[in-house]
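Researcher: I'd like a structural prediction for the single chain below. Treat it as a standalone chain; there are no partners to consider.
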Amino acid sequence: MTTPLPSREPALEPTPEQIEQEKKMKRMMTMVIIGAVILLISLIAAIVFLLHPNTSGEWVGKLRDVFIIVVALESLFIGVALVVLIVQIAGLINLLQNEVRPILKATHDTVNNLRGTAEFLGENVVEPVIKLNGYLAGLNRMLELMGIKKK
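Model: Treating it as a single chain, here is the predicted structure.
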């Protein structure tokens, strides 16, 4: 009699929520890339404009002021990102302390319990069986030597 092989389940199809989330992530990534390209183009244009010899000092001063404002806004965004990062790290630490640590403790207790069970079985089941097999082998050999039992 042959046993049937376990059938492999087909890969789960993504749910509509997952599909929508992937679309949002793609849109967000596209927007970030477009923003980075626009920022790079404007930076290159500003450098070219500043290096042009006919540029007046008044325009350079205004452009400098604009760059100072952009750098200040960038620093503000970096500060917000750091605050969000700190909050996320605090949440991770909370998760580790309140959920993962108890799971690890329960796993450690289970392993210790299994270790004790294995030692108990070794002492109370396996050792007597081994001793009984030794006695029976000796009795068998003694009966063979006395000629009562044939080899």
